[in-house]
Please model this.
Amino acid sequence: MNKRIKVSIVLLNWNGSQHLKQFLPGIVKYSNYDWAEIIVADNLSSDDSCRIVENDFPSVKLIRLSQNFGFALGYNMALKDNYAEYILLLNSDVAVSENWLDPIVRAMDEDPLLGACQPKILSLYHPEKFEYAGSCGGFIDHLGYPFCRGRIINSLEDDYGQYDSRISVFWTSGAAMLVRGSLWHDSGGFDSDFWAHMEEIDLCWRLKNKGFKMGVIPDSKVYHLGGGSLAYGSPQKIYLNFRNNLFLLYKNLPEGKLFKTIFVRMVLDGVAAVQFLVTGQFMAFWKVPRAHLDFYRSLCSLRKKREILLSGSINIAHPEIYKGSIIFDFFLFGKRKFSSLNFHTHKI
Model:
């Protein structure tokens, strides 16, 4: 690879030919810098995705993967020989805007401790609203439930500039995530056991434990369709979110918090399963015990990962972890906006 490439914009694709037709022209148009390249890594699509890239987008590099590796391992395979200074993971269903790339790259250039950052992510079809997957920067509460500046549980806020400050966040969205290439490779990239969902939170947590910051740069805006691979609320997505959240907590929580947090989460997961049952969501109900069973089956490998990760950690206290409960705030106290939380953020 040409070593002068500063930014590799990498789209992971699986049977997304319609998305490529719709979104790739804008990505090419608004990423036209001599220091940037665009790559489509194809997860063995059965549609005409590869033909479209080769015929219609000659400036875009195509990587054909040998099978469908999923999101996490797919990116790991696509990036194993990538030596760009920065790697930009971009979902194939994201529309970028003019001057979207420069602000996030400059932010990384200006702060060597900024390990990864994201733009403001708005809804494609409702651009006045934040989008579910990342909004204006990601956080978790002390029980490991993710939420965003602009999205609490499933409540999406309108964007009227209220979150336009650059701040330190806990995680950046895999829908549009700029990460230092050296950190990507040193950390081993995504944990492929996650397959998809929350692998970016796990990566960010690992990088934060190494002393790096995550940030959101709202000067840059993109628009996400969302739900392209797995629809929001699908039983498989529910399974992955429940299982991967337990993976996330077991791998990264400090010693004094691990077992208490896991126990409370088991109880709350049981409550969620009962809710699925009484509301007639039978497929979703069965996904919860399956997720727990697969977590138990993975404990041996998770324990080994945990020992390695925590032995190399230099910082385990993160102010971006919300000390309250986002579940209680939302369902018991009716807090639907990030600004309604008693949560102090830090500018970068």
Observations:
- The first helix runs from residue 17 to 29.
- The chain has a mean pLDDT of 96.
